[in-house]
Amino acid sequence: MLGLDLSFIWAGIIAFAVLTYVILDGFDLGIGLLFPLTDDEEERSVMMNSVAPVWDGNETWLVLGGGGLFAVFPLAYAVVMSALYMPITLMLLGLVFRGVAFEYRWRTVRWKRLWDMAFFGGSLTAALCQGIALGALVQGIEIADRAYAGGWWDWLTPFSLLCGMALVLGYAMLGATWLNLKLTGRIQAHMRSLAWPAAIGTVVCMGIVSLWTPFLDAVYFARWFAWPTVAFSVIVPALVAAAGLFFGLRKRQEMRPFLCAQALFVLGFIGIGISFYPYIVPPSLTIVEAAAPDESLWFALVGTVVLVPMILIYTAYSYWVFCGKINPSDGYH
Fold first, then answer.
1. Whole-model pTM?
2. Could you please report the per-residue DSSP string of 54-113?
3. 144, 288, 294, 296: which sits with the fewest CB atoms below 10 Å from its CB?
């Protein structure tokens, strides 16, 4: 019973780390996705300045989620990495190029356009591959004898590509609503106008994914269409959040669109979690089966109890220090 409790505690910690990464790093990935739609150098510089103090700290949560999966669910880590080696590798390369471009574009004039393209390309690759990996995980990974038994290209399906496109549009929506919150004047108005198509595309894609998911597995179908149905408990709040997002954009509000956009991601994540439970790698590897021995779970938990509050404190402090509107005259150093 103790091992079961610890494994579910750790599943909750990893889920929290992944969700925190998505809602924090999602909007600065979204800024990279919006780069080709910007009007001039001043606009691109201000956009990057809006996340300059926090973008690298946001990725701490990705390290915590991946490292935690390796430490406490080694079997799940081995299966997922074997099944999703290509999209995960491409995602990491995209994050590397994006991070390098973030630093280098401020140090050059001649090659600035090149680094702008690298910033966009890295953001697009990372966002698309994250969505594809999520879609491949939702549709199920074939396991035999506690090892991955599928093919090299099993991750590449119409459903996973749809999830990839949905996440790209969702991150663009987060980026646009974040910039609407942080900027002023003509640039803010431009970002607010870009938020509309991104938000509409996100809601449409989320709707299609929600309708498609129950038909991927009988367990999903039973949970989404049983009574009391989880579809009602998740989709109705999601519709409310979408309505609040569009209302806030129409009224030219700043905080509401960003919070409603984040709420859409949180509700979508909750829906996925309910569909997965009690599996960590559907459709056959449960949280308990994938967990490491109790000693390893306890050892890692002690450090995590100390580490996670520290990360939360410095993350909250950095956002508090750099809250408010961005001054266009400030540069990234």
1. 0.92
2. THHHHTHHHHHHHHHHHHH-HHHHHHHHHHSHHHHHHHHHHHHHHHHHHHHTTS-STTHH
3. 144
